[in-house]
Amino acid sequence: MRRSLSLRWIWQSLKALGVTGKHVLFEPRTTEGIRSAESRAPRYRASFALVHDEHGEEACIGCSLCEKICPSTVITVVPGGKVESPATGKKRGTLEDFTLDLQACIICELCVQVCPVDAIVMVREQETPGYSREDLVLTMDKLYANEHDKPRYWGSGSALMEMQDPKKEVG
Question: How far from 36 is each of 32, 39, 99, 122, CA to CA, in Å?
Fold first, then answer.
């Protein structure tokens, strides 16, 4: 019994040395460095941004649909009431405060899909790492800065909803 264990051990060791010896002769297949945001897949999404409409006004109308649909409850919307738009002359909803906590966000994209005016979008670049939890809380200022500073994800809420329309013919 003892002899068979030692022979098995020797055989396993020789097999391991054979595998090691075989791989010593080949070039390594690893690459150095981190992949850049440009080399990521087109559907990669990492963070959020709030956008402005074609007239330069905040696109968000404060409807709170994103807050209601969020499964992680990380979005807080404070509507600001209705104000007359200087560009169009119509009354529209405004936004007083918008916060999104990335610490618990599961990047499900439901908030983007439900937005009726495409005010919240996904971006393809992650937030910079921080030293405190508050660094991962996206305030309105950070979200509006992401609109210009980070590349957008390919889909908007209306485009994603159109793709899911069962009446649309596939062919």
Answer: 12, 6, 28, 17
